[in-house]
Amino acid sequence: xSWKFSFPGLIYLTGLFLPNLxxxxxxxxxxxxxxxxxxxxxxxxxxIGQVLVTVFAFFESQSAYSGFLEQLCFLLSLAMxxxxxxxxxxxxxxxxxxxDFYAPFLKIPVAGATLPVxxxxxxxIANHNPLLCVSVVILGIGHIGIHWNHARNCG
Length: 155
Hints:
Structural class: mainly alpha
Transmembrane segments: 6-24, 68-89, 101-123, 129-148
Oligomer: single chain
Helix content: over 70%
Low-confidence stretches: none
Mean pLDDT: 94
Number of domains: 1
Order of helices and strands: EHHHEHHHH
Distance between the termini: 48 Å
Keywords: Membrane, Transmembrane, Transmembrane helix
Radius of gyration: 16 Å
Strand content: under 5%
């Protein structure tokens, strides 16, 4: 299998990291208390998945986007990534409470965790990149699990 640089992967990572950098100065009150209660096993999976996704998002197969399914997956992944940006716009315009952070967006629970995981998984399919898909599953178990617990605990 021949690999090349993935510009969509770079764009997705930029779209993922920029709002998160801004968020570090706009965390909801009580977030640090929620972090203290995180399960170590989920945190480990999340960290491993973050590193792997960051690395493998930069690669795509030479035959990426070659068929209808791949093109459909890319369009769906793009819709998920744009929805993720919409989630952040809504959060930054809100009072920035835990409820605002964990409120469903477009009826998707814990959208800040779920949308990028779905976007990167679909990008992995579109790119013919099974390493990205596996990495996203690892990330998703940890990341969505952690934030699902946070959301449940904040009511």
